[in-house]
Amino acid sequence: MQENGRNVRGDPGANVATEVPRSRARRWALHLTLPGCWGAVLFACLSFTPSLLPRGGILQGMICGITAAIGYGLGVLLAFVWRAFADRPPRSPKAASWWIFGACGAVLFAVFFGLGQYWQHEIRTLMGVSEYNLALAVLSPLVAVVMFAVLLAIGRGIRALYHWAARTLDRWIGQRAANVVGWVLVAGLVYAIVSGVLLAGFIDAANAAFSARDTRTEEGVQQPTTALRSGGPDSVVPWDSLGWQGRIFVGQGPTTEQLGEFTEGPALEPIRIYAGLASADDTEDRASLAVEDLTRARGFERSNLVVVTTTGSGWVDPALVDSVEYLTGGDVATVAIQYSYLPSWISYLVDQSKAREAGRDLFDAVYDVWSKLPQDARPRLLVAGESLGSFGGETAFSGEYDLRNRTSGTVFAGPPNFNVLFREFSDRREAGSPEIEPVFRDGRTVRFTNDPQAEIPPTDEPWEGSRVLYLMHPSDPIVWWSPHLITSEPDWIGEAPGRDVLEDMVWIPFVTFWQVTADLPFSTGVPAGHGHKYSTEYVDAWALVLQSPEITPDDIDEVKFIVGAEE
After folding, report:
1. Residue-averaged pLDDT of the chain
2. What whole-number distance in Å separates Cα of residue 95 and Cα of residue 527?
């Protein structure tokens, strides 16, 4: 019966009317195509191949699920293209085909899962990592299934939205035009949601969290009582304006007593100058303020002056500065400014222009004063930066000759793959030199190394004048990550692997990109000397760049012991 157009209770037609759409929706949600499943299983297996860093079970499961979803989409696409050329509609596979897929897929996945555990063990051995959670490794396939299901549901939701848009538009315009316009509208909507809602929301949340931290002071860090530090007596930069990382930078470091024990004689107190985000309104003003404070502290009267571009959060690696302070007996001034409070991996997305401005404005402000000093009264002008700091530090220079002519030496560690000069030097390297240790113009000014205590190629060529040294670990994903990994094999994978990269690592379209992408947030979670964690390498690097005859091998070993103990 019907009452006022509605099925009343007890009418069997009511259940039929509601159950049919529900069963269709359930079948649509659970339906998987055989070509897509083959693509998903093959890509899921390939996700277990080795990358640059060891992976935990949860991370491996996420990578497996993402690559499986990519494989499923490619399988469906290839099947669609093949049917278009064969000019036939889709048809349901036979039951035997599903049984064959199930058996072969299970065997393939089990084999690659086992190989993946072996490869991860080998990577951990290379890096001296002993931590391994068996339970999470076993759980990784379940994580992969959940990730795959979520991505598949999102993809089908987008497709359903497209079909709805095309059907709606078809009422007013032609079908072909409706299909095209529908895709454009849906693609634009997805892009707007991802970039304008999800990404913007993520960045806003990160800004709120890290800006709050920037107002605090790390436990144990005290305001300097010396006039040789920003935030100390007579400083033109207020202590409260330095930010979290700035207060750590000026509040720590080797004391005069510690330096004296190392030099076995008198030592100078190092000068550390810093301007935080709250110190001035823009980068140029912060750079001018830092130089004013540097002049007040008589930093230009030291024998060595180091201009450091910070990482995204304003961090200056203690190993970078401590090393040069020990090797110079404290006769050094270091100056830096903050341009963000976000971690570098987030700053890659939003603060590249700020890093560029900070590196250029700070060096130019320092150079403006330094260049006007009498030549016999100038300190050695040195430049340094790690990660995004190397990107900012490079932007003050136009190329090799500019670095050589305007500095006395440079140390850049873990340069991101998008660094302009780094890419220029690497891409124009001499034939036969590997990408992990390229040789640029006979190494006359710029050289690269993953182990500065070993001989740096080219060993048979002189390295005179100002030296520019890049430190980059073969296993550092910051150095090697690039969007081109999606479709192009880089030289560093095709060539002989570095000392801490498995020879079994191969390039696989789409897969390698997501593997290296997943390595980025965990690039410092490995022992020093691997990944993006640079430590005692700075001691060897500074010894090479400073070229001081007073620095002995024993001095280098002792400073490396001190710096390594601080990690």
Report:
1. 89
2. 51
- Look at strands 380-386 and 332-337 and give their pairing: unpaired
153 within domain boundaries: yes
Indicate whether 261 belongs to any domain.
yes
pLDDT value at residue 161? 84
- Residue 112, domain extent: 28-173
The stretches of 273-351 forming alpha helices (DSSP H) are 283-296, 318-327, 344-350
Tens of pLDDT along 38-66?
Answer: 999 999 999 999 999 999 999 999 999 99
Tokens at 326, concatenated: 């020990």
Asked if 440 and 429 touch (Cβ cutoff 8 Å), the reply is yes
CB < 8 Å & 24+ apart, contacts of 227-230: 227/296, 227/297, 228/269, 228/270, 228/271, 228/272, 228/297, 229/271, 229/272, 229/273, 229/297, 230/272, 230/273, 230/274, 230/275, 230/290, 230/293
pTM for this predicted structure: 0.88
Determine, yes or no, domain membership for 179. no
Kindly report the backbone phi and psi dihedral angles of residue 2, in degrees, each rounded to the nearest multiple of 5, phi listed first: -125, 145
- The bridge status of strand 409-413 relative to strand 446-449 is unpaired
Number of domains in the chain: 2
Inside any domain, residue 491: no
